[in-house]
Specification:
The chain has helices at residues 2-6, 47-55, 64-78, 85-101, and strands at 9-16, 27-34, 58-59, 62-63. It is α+β, with helices and mostly antiparallel strands. The protein has two domains: 1-41, no CATH class; 42-103. Strands 1-2 form a two-stranded antiparallel ribbon. A hairpin with a 2-residue loop joins strand 3 (58-59) and strand 4 (62-63). Helix 2 (47-55) crosses helix 4 (85-101). It starts with a helix and ends in a 19-residue tail after the last helix. It holds the Pfam family ChaC. Its EC number is 4.3.2.7. InterPro entries: ChaC (IPR006840).
Length: 120
Amino acid sequence: MREAVLGGYDTKLVKFHPQEKDAEEPILALVYIATPQNPSYLGPASEEDIAAQIIVSSGCAGHNIEYLLRLADFMRYFCPQAEDKHLFSIEEALISILPCLYCTEESPEETESVPQKSKG
């Protein structure tokens, strides 16, 4: 919905080849690719810059922090054979930045609600 409304994305129909052995045909998948016309387009960026962008971004479906963390968890638990180093590097950068957003005069024990990277 967001990509269709905001614009600034190219849409491509691509063939997705499932890894299941019983999958006979590729599945057509719709992919959105951000373009420089997109106001949120970073262009080539480090994982840290991407994480910083995610931290300040949200939409009608929720905050992008949650989207990233759920995507990384999904990939880790349901597609463990498809190691996505870029995704997990962004997740790691985001998690390293998050405690800075919760800096207070409280002791670390009082800020246990800060999300921690899951082991896996």
